[in-house]
Amino acid sequence: MLGTVAPLQANLSTVLVQIVILSSLYALVALGFTLIFGVGGVLNLAHGANITIGAFVAFVVSSQMGYGGFVGLAAAFVLTGLLSGAYYLGLIKRIQDEPIMVMIITLVTAVAVEEVIRFVYGSQPKVLTLLSGRVNIGGSTVTFTQLVAFALSALLIVGMFAFVNYTRQGKALLATSMSHKGAALVGIEANRINLLVWVGAGALAGAAGVFLGSIQGASWAMGRAPLVLSFSIVVLGGIGSIRGSVLGAFVVGTLEILTVQYVDSSLTGLTPLLVLVAVLLLRPEGLFGRELVEA
């Protein structure tokens, strides 16, 4: 036991920095997935495809068109949100009362998006750069891209909390998540709220895709791992709970960093699956239950 104390203390600041940066990004990755299930009651298996689309929109705008990383990020945020909204209006709206059909359609869509991107851009990951340079924080070397990803992820998460809890549209969203019929009785149009949610979830996924792509490269299958990650985080936090997703992201991020640092780096990606299995067996309702009203 004592033999592990010194290395742990020596690397504690590095580990803490990595946990905070990774977990904030994980929270952003999972938020859109949480929103759609919490309000619409359906699982959007095209969530990972939206992440991939966001990364490649940023790649085209920043690298191929030469407008820079932040313009690429803005384009990914806006265009992915609009595409997600159009997807809802054109297809999901017609079958939103059939959760199994939504799962099937979104899964097929995700596969189709991946294959189109692989056909157009090939299988090799594309370099996506927001900023160059590094900085030392608490003994840990962090890239400026990671810092920007952390800062903007945190800003978007706080903005989502503020929107849901303190705006008229956010309160309508909460009411719809509790009961579509009840919301309709007080004059809230559920379809309009669902459209807002799909646009917002797509925009958040697009931004997450840019951050992930800038850290690990943009590739046609990059959305698969975040989809599994999102599902694990959402189940852990309580399906439909925004605060549960944020807390779940920090739990998963912490466990993953500790596993990589002190067990074996080859186990990266295994932690979310283990968490998912454990939660389903021990506490299937998650940490905060299912209601989005608990945001």
UniProtKB/TrEMBL annotation:
It is a multi-pass membrane protein. GO terms for molecular function: transmembrane transporter activity. One of its GO terms (cellular component) is plasma membrane. It is found in: Cell membrane. One of its GO terms (biological process) is amino acid transport. Signal peptide: none annotated. Coiled coil: none annotated. Keywords: Amino-acid transport, Cell membrane, Membrane, Transmembrane, Transmembrane helix, Transport. It comes from the Archaea. InterPro entries: ABC_transp_permease, BCAA_transport_permease. Belongs to the binding-protein-dependent transport system permease family. LivHM subfamily. This is Branched-chain amino acid ABC transporter permease.
